[in-house]
């Protein structure tokens, strides 16, 4: 039985509609999760600086702050940042930074953690301004997550 072009197109369209509807129910949840995760706004972190015209308050996206901290921590010999998280209070003021690092093998861990904390704390003031929370107002936790044989 020979089919003309319209019959072939009609049959293909019906098959595609059946496949799409059934397929959609199978992939719907994954597609929605991917769509929701594609845009994830970054939490704001409050910064404050003194200018000649007065105090200026502004917000820095926590993703920007994490990137800046990562760039600072990578300068510490013997340490490589794995994950960095920031926590704020109800007024978007930074209260806690947690930095997980990969440490070089045979690197003394306490001095390394102190160096990472010192660099991170000083860099916070650079990003969040001279009137940002003082170093003792923000807890900077350092976790040695792993060690590596190679030089970092």
Q: How would you sum up the global shape? A: elongated
- How far the N terminus sits from the C terminus, by CA atoms, comes to 72 Å
CATH topology of the largest domain: Alpha-Beta Plaits
CATH class of the largest domain: Alpha Beta
For this structure, the quaternary state is: single chain
- Please state the structural category: alpha+beta
Q: Any guess at the CATH architecture of the largest domain?
A: 2-Layer Sandwich
The value of Rg in angstroms is 26 Å
The biggest sheet amounts to: 3 strands, mixed
The CATH superfamily name of the largest domain is Cation efflux protein, cytoplasmic domain
- Total domain modules: 2
Question: In DSSP terms, counting alpha (H) and pi (I) runs of 4 or more, how many helices?
Answer: 3
- With strands numbered from the N-terminus, the spatial order across the biggest sheet is 3-4-5
Low-confidence stretches: none
Could you spell the SSE succession in H and E letters? HEEHEEHE
**What portion of the residues fall into strands of 2 or more residues?**
25-35%
Tally of strands: 5
Helix coverage percent of residues? 40-55%
